[in-house]
Amino acid sequence: PSAHFNLARTHLALANDGRPGGDFWDPEARLAHLRAALSHLAQSTDNASSVQSQKESYKSMEEVLHQLGEREAAWRAYRRFVGLAPHEGLQARAQDSCHAIAVWLEDRLLQLDLVLEDGEEASLYP
After folding, report:
1. Which comes out higher in pLDDT, residue 1 or 83?
2. 77 with 61: CB under 8 angstroms?
3. CB neighbours (10 Å) of residue 76?
4. Tens digit of pLDDT for each residue in 52-68?
5. Distance of alpha carbon 87 from alpha carbon 74, whole angstroms
């Protein structure tokens, strides 16, 4: 199981290699690496010897499926991950209203000092 997981992570790293000449820039090679990673992760989850191994495999599987554009399958893998480790799932985030964000941005803008071309500082507001 750990060999499959390690191979999957290697394929994922190769698929996301953004260096010049890396497979991130070659759609066919990237897709092949992502599919290989998914295959190894499936074998890793099927043969996992511990809950920890299975959990990490589902977590990586969700990432790969998301990159493949398979949102429903990614969501299923995420639910399996959360089922094994409920405390590690995404936490609900507070949401601010547009008005609250606008007020916050205005406050930051008021604190912003401008540096003129000659090196002098100036405030946006007198």
Report:
1. 83
2. yes
3. 15
4. 899 999 999 999 999 99
5. 19
